[in-house]
Amino acid sequence: MREFQLIDRLAARLAARRADTQLTIGDDAAVVAPAPGQVLAITTDTLISGRHFPDDTPAFDIGWKAIAVNLSDLAAMGAAPAWLTVALSTPVLDGPWCDDFVDGALAAIGDAAVDIVGGDTTRGPLSITVTAIGMLPAGAALTRAGAVPGDVVAVTGTLGDAAKGLGLWPARADTGGDPDTAFLLRRLARPQWRNGAAVRALAHAGIDVSDGFGADLGHVLAASGVGARIELAALPASEALRRRAATDEERRDLQWRGGDDYELCLTLPAASVDAARARLDCGLTVVGVIESEPGLRVVDAHGRRCPPFESDAAGWDHFGGRGAV
Ligand SMILES: Nc1ncnc2c1ncn2[C@@H]1O[C@H](COP(=O)(O)OP(=O)(O)OP(=O)(O)O)[C@@H](O)[C@H]1O
Ligand SMILES: Cc1ncc(C[n+]2csc(CCOP(=O)(O)O)c2C)c(N)n1
Ligand SMILES: [Mg+2]
């Protein structure tokens, strides 16, 4: 297949759904019309084969993940997603692979009113860069800087599943029939972006958990100039992770520093938690409280401090720790 055959094929599959998409794939740039009074939230994330997903990941899952991680960043800002561009670098133009990739991308969008309005296609090592644009009312963005003492810290869904899935990936041929393993692998391959826009007005601060819960919460604390007390035993874990983690220590470590979860970490008044939970379809678990004293205080079920979890070197860093190799 040639480059322009691919683009024609994409254009045929990606008809605009939104009335405010004025010009989509096919020209030098897309043209979109944000609603009056709304501001745009813009984010971009690259996925590199072998670094963000195993080299032998199916095309559908790569398409899914490339979209989901970007929609997760918009969710963390409380923005309603609207437009995406998808830049694909690939060593070969393989029609069925591209069809599966687009199937996965569209599945990650689901029934959200989001248009893929453009992109780029080049030959090179497999990597995908998505830019996502969302809308929200002026002045209403859910930033990392809004946490205030007395807020509770809450997290959607469960933590640690994707990191466990990554550990299980190499032996999946032997264990793929096991439902817990299948669940954990799926959590890695197809992260679910959360409906951050629905809870924007209830929360004070938000971030999505990509690098690890401890590290990403640390970004909120630093930006807000506050600290937090977190109860390790309160971190939400799936039944699959509870069963598949060899020890409680392994489970806690994966939950705290695993990354790739794409859950939302929110700070909000305790009185708003039930309302926020009712607007989400994924659970929302209170794991701690924001305090005025800077720093992270992590306690176990007996109220004892857990210093290893308080280190700020816990998360994924492409140029340090686990990410440096
Ligand atoms: N090369 C770059 N040029 C300009 N800004 C950058 C660059 N890399 C990161 N940033 C900005 O730095 C901030 C933090 O980026 P970071 O990638 O850590 O956040 P994130 O996108 O939420 O995390 P993740 O990539 O794990 O999803 C963002 O505002 C991002 O736009
Ligand atoms: C093959 C393979 N090796 C390692 C990982 C783990 N991983 C890679 S990037 C990242 C943080 C988010 O990335 P970014 O900060 O670039 O958004 C994490 C947790 C993976 N998913 N696949
Ligand atoms: Mg983020």
TrEMBL record:
<dbReference type="InterPro" id="IPR006283">
    <property type="entry name" value="ThiL-like"/>
</dbReference>
<keyword id="KW-0547">Nucleotide-binding</keyword>
<dbReference type="GO" id="GO:0000287">
    <property type="term" value="F:magnesium ion binding"/>
</dbReference>
<feature type="binding site">
    <location>
        <position position="208"/>
    </location>
    <ligand>
        <name>Mg(2+) 3</name>
    </ligand>
</feature>
<dbReference type="GO" id="GO:0009030">
    <property type="term" value="F:thiamine-phosphate kinase activity"/>
</dbReference>
<feature type="domain" description="PurM-like N-terminal">
    <location>
        <begin position="26"/>
        <end position="135"/>
    </location>
</feature>
<comment type="pathway">
    <text>Cofactor biosynthesis; thiamine diphosphate biosynthesis; thiamine diphosphate from thiamine phosphate: step 1/1.</text>
</comment>
<feature type="binding site">
    <location>
        <position position="211"/>
    </location>
    <ligand>
        <name>Mg(2+) 5</name>
    </ligand>
</feature>
<dbReference type="InterPro" id="IPR036676">
    <property type="entry name" value="PurM-like_C_sf"/>
</dbReference>
<feature type="binding site">
    <location>
        <position position="43"/>
    </location>
    <ligand>
        <name>Mg(2+) 4</name>
    </ligand>
</feature>
<dbReference type="Pfam" id="PF02769">
    <property type="entry name" value="AIRS_C"/>
</dbReference>
<feature type="binding site">
    <location>
        <position position="45"/>
    </location>
    <ligand>
        <name>Mg(2+) 2</name>
    </ligand>
</feature>
<keyword id="KW-0479">Metal-binding</keyword>
<dbReference type="InterPro" id="IPR016188">
    <property type="entry name" value="PurM-like_N"/>
</dbReference>
<dbReference type="GO" id="GO:0009229">
    <property type="term" value="P:thiamine diphosphate biosynthetic process"/>
</dbReference>
<feature type="binding site">
    <location>
        <position position="45"/>
    </location>
    <ligand>
        <name>Mg(2+) 1</name>
    </ligand>
</feature>
<feature type="binding site">
    <location>
        <position position="73"/>
    </location>
    <ligand>
        <name>Mg(2+) 2</name>
    </ligand>
</feature>
<keyword id="KW-0808">Transferase</keyword>
<feature type="binding site">
    <location>
        <position position="52"/>
    </location>
    <ligand>
        <name>substrate</name>
    </ligand>
</feature>
<keyword id="KW-0784">Thiamine biosynthesis</keyword>
<comment type="similarity">
    <text>Belongs to the thiamine-monophosphate kinase family.</text>
</comment>
<keyword id="KW-0418">Kinase</keyword>
<dbReference type="GO" id="GO:0009228">
    <property type="term" value="P:thiamine biosynthetic process"/>
</dbReference>
<feature type="binding site">
    <location>
        <position position="210"/>
    </location>
    <ligand>
        <name>ATP</name>
    </ligand>
</feature>
<protein>
    <recommendedName>
        <fullName>Thiamine-monophosphate kinase</fullName>
        <ecNumber>2.7.4.16</ecNumber>
    </recommendedName>
</protein>
<dbReference type="GO" id="GO:0005524">
    <property type="term" value="F:ATP binding"/>
</dbReference>
<comment type="function">
    <text>Catalyzes the ATP-dependent phosphorylation of thiamine-monophosphate (TMP) to form thiamine-pyrophosphate (TPP), the active form of vitamin B1.</text>
</comment>
<feature type="binding site">
    <location>
        <position position="260"/>
    </location>
    <ligand>
        <name>substrate</name>
    </ligand>
</feature>
<dbReference type="Pfam" id="PF00586">
    <property type="entry name" value="AIRS"/>
</dbReference>
<keyword id="KW-0460">Magnesium</keyword>
<dbReference type="InterPro" id="IPR010918">
    <property type="entry name" value="PurM-like_C_dom"/>
</dbReference>
<keyword id="KW-0067">ATP-binding</keyword>
<dbReference type="InterPro" id="IPR036921">
    <property type="entry name" value="PurM-like_N_sf"/>
</dbReference>
<feature type="binding site">
    <location>
        <position position="73"/>
    </location>
    <ligand>
        <name>Mg(2+) 4</name>
    </ligand>
</feature>
<feature type="domain" description="PurM-like C-terminal">
    <location>
        <begin position="149"/>
        <end position="299"/>
    </location>
</feature>
<feature type="binding site">
    <location>
        <position position="73"/>
    </location>
    <ligand>
        <name>Mg(2+) 3</name>
    </ligand>
</feature>
<feature type="binding site">
    <location>
        <position position="44"/>
    </location>
    <ligand>
        <name>Mg(2+) 1</name>
    </ligand>
</feature>
<feature type="binding site">
    <location>
        <begin position="119"/>
        <end position="120"/>
    </location>
    <ligand>
        <name>ATP</name>
    </ligand>
</feature>
<feature type="binding site">
    <location>
        <position position="120"/>
    </location>
    <ligand>
        <name>Mg(2+) 1</name>
    </ligand>
</feature>
<feature type="binding site">
    <location>
        <position position="28"/>
    </location>
    <ligand>
        <name>Mg(2+) 4</name>
    </ligand>
</feature>
<feature type="binding site">
    <location>
        <position position="28"/>
    </location>
    <ligand>
        <name>Mg(2+) 3</name>
    </ligand>
</feature>
<feature type="binding site">
    <location>
        <position position="144"/>
    </location>
    <ligand>
        <name>ATP</name>
    </ligand>
</feature>
